[in-house]
Amino acid sequence: MNPHDEPQHPAPGGLLKNLNPEQYAAVTAPAEPALILAGAGSGKTRVLTTRIAWLLQTGQVSPGGIMAVTFTNKAAKEMLTRLTTMLPVNARGMWIGTFHGLCNRFLRAHWKLAGLPQGFQILDATDSVSAIKRVIKAMSLDEERYVPKQVSWFIAGAKEDGLRPPDIDVHDEQTRTLAAIYQAYEDQCAREGVVDFAELMLRSYEVMRDQPAVREHYQRRFRHVLVDEFQDTNKLQYAWLKMFAPPGQGQSVLAVGDDDQSIYAFRGARVGNMSDFEREYRVKNVIKLEQNYRSFGNILDAANELISRNSRRLGKELRTDAGPGEPVRVYEASSDFAEAQWLIEEAQALHRGGMDRKEIAVLYRSNAQSRVIESALFNAGIPYRVYGGLRFFERAEVKHALAYLRLLENPNDDTSFLRVVNFPARGIGARAIELLQDAARASGRSLYQSVSAVAGKAGSNLKAFNDLVDSTRNLTVGHTLREILEQMLEISGLNEFYRNDKDGAERLENLGELINAAEAFVTQEGFGKDAVALPVDELAPGAISEGLPHAVAPAQVATPDAETGEIMSPLAAFLTHASLEAGDNQAQAGQDAVQLMTVHSAKGLEFDAVFITGLEEGLFPHENSLSDGDGLEEERRLMYVAITRARQRLYLCFSQTRMLHGQTRYNVKSRFFDELPEAALKWLSPRNQGFGSGFAREYQDAWQRGSGLKSMVGAGRVERPSYAEPPVPASMKKKVAEEHGGLRVGKGVFHTKFGEGVLVTLEGSGADARAQVNFGRHGMKWLALSVAKLTPID
DNA sequence: TTGAGTGCATTTTTT
DNA sequence: ATGCACTCAA
């Protein structure tokens, strides 16, 4: 269909009902490039899904002609779920998924052209680092100078710039070596038949770039491409997109994003892609979604005022019909502990007032800040949930099990081999492994293939390991995924190991959970939404791949491969799934618990009440962000994201004193307070709250810290501890406030040039008296009191 | 092979 | 303060 003579489509009433004019315009935008600036809480997901539903319902496109890309599995899933409630669609024909998920799907179909083995497996970030570590060792390079993590960063960065090892600009020795490591790592990955995350993107980009037939096929196929969170795309992802839907090809590309919520520059996201998109695609349709359906007015006023301080914005202001609502409450605490204590009392009050605990979120800039809050919640016996810990498929025992499974699929996967060759221990030590690695390196073969080259006791132990893997494989041929897992867990000795381990109960549970996950994958997911190769006729010349019989009975057989007719086993599909989706991070996700997370991980979520904690110079905005150019603006966007998470109530708090890295820091309140509209704020008196003043508070403080988190078993499972009065620590008794002419350590001071600060240290006396003051954005200063005019404040 | 002891870094993170 | 990665002795 020619997009330029767009016919009038009958507007199906149900779908478009209740859309505001901007949303309506976005949903029914003509089939040409469009940029949607979607503010926080403006119904972005709704627009995306309604758009797809509308396109399908009006017959402008069939499922096979749609590609919708997101960043997270969660977003992709949500889109799919909402879509299916709007419209009975055959989801299989559509390409809805994450960038990486779609790349995987693409490479499974074109593995040969991509130069990959058919059953290639995917390395997660941790696997990739350990693979790089092996490369560095094999090259006998100094691990101090070439830190595996940093090298991994370098390689991922290069790939995201579309660079292969020969393309690296080797201007110095260091870069030359890095490029050499990159090359060796690539070779190793090829030998082992694995790809990392960045490779998924780059490899599929290259296939599209270098294979005209494939490129033309997909460009013809995808009439409508939709991209979520466009502000988070990196250089490679944008280039990838342009391969599927280049400017001027008549495809409709709908990019949805919010430049004000771009908070991932540090990992390569380029907000600039939005304006590049607008220019390169000659976008006529820029639609702003500014009507907010989430928050009350005061909250939005705060967000708008704050973000207006940023330059280089595409320009957008949120508005609401909901009225001003409650003021934004601000609390100044004396210590991080008092901050946590106050926050908990406030949260309890909200809960007593009928708010679910899971509707209350506590946000912080860095993970280290969660400890005090956790500790306080724990002691108060309030259930809570911390986001961002280890996720299911990242747990050690699960990774062990997956490594065994990978070896069943591909014994030449050295990463997996090394992970489990001596776990559980079977007498294969570092020496044996070194010998084996030497042999493998010498012959250019895998560790598995080199076992026979190792002599003696070590050799026979290694052989026994190989036999173990081989026999498991032989034993489980033709069995269900569940049976394969059960057999593997027994034969490998993992089950027995954790049965005998005194702390093994939870790990055993997780292994059981892994079996469940496999079962669920096979039945519910109808495995291989992502993993299964495309139907044979997918690439038939001139094929209009809409309406193909995609339906495959789930849990039956995998779809045969496009070229050879070979089948991707359920096991291989499950392993792929495990790499692409790390799973949830907490067992009791369903419980009504207060939600703790970093501001970054709060993006995309919303809560009735939000506490933004630790609003102090150096912490938020973070000190490390102030050095680089766009750093402060990104911090401000981060704050903007945090504010706009709140529906009804927003609390901001900061503390005069904070324990960080084992040292007490005296912080100045965040500059962001100066950037919020005073009329929307309500400052709460710090004096009437918490533990009162001085000694009593510090004493309580010290004791609470001492109790720590060590004794905790798990969130929300513990009752309030009954305790005797703790003894007064000696350090407390001796403590005397340092004072000088009305100045006190820990209290505020004013300096005519540097403004407000916090007194950190006082030294010397008389003419020699010096003071150390933290002036926040002006930094830490030493001042001679005989010269500097410091006046106490408060 | 395993345990205790030492050194070191410690913004944000999905796939 | 604390966790983790790595070293060295038993």
TrEMBL record:
It catalyses: ATP + H2O = ADP + phosphate + H(+); Couples ATP hydrolysis with the unwinding of duplex DNA by translocating in the 3'-5' direction. Residues 297-604 form the UvrD-like helicase C-terminal domain. ATP binds at A38, G39, A40, G41, S42, G43, K44, T45. Signal peptide: none annotated. Transmembrane segments: none annotated. Pfam families: PcrA_UvrD_tudor, UvrD-helicase, UvrD_C. Residues 17-296 form the UvrD-like helicase ATP-binding domain. Its EC number is 5.6.2.4. Keywords: ATP-binding, DNA-binding, Exonuclease, Helicase, Hydrolase, Isomerase, Nuclease, Nucleotide-binding. Gene3D superfamilies: 1.10.10.160, P-loop containing nucleotide triphosphate hydrolases, PCRA, domain 4. It comes from the Bacteria. GO terms for molecular function: exonuclease activity. It is an enzyme of class 5 (isomerase). Belongs to the helicase family. UvrD subfamily. This is DNA 3'-5' helicase. The lineage of its organism: Bacteria, Pseudomonadati, Pseudomonadota, Betaproteobacteria, Burkholderiales.
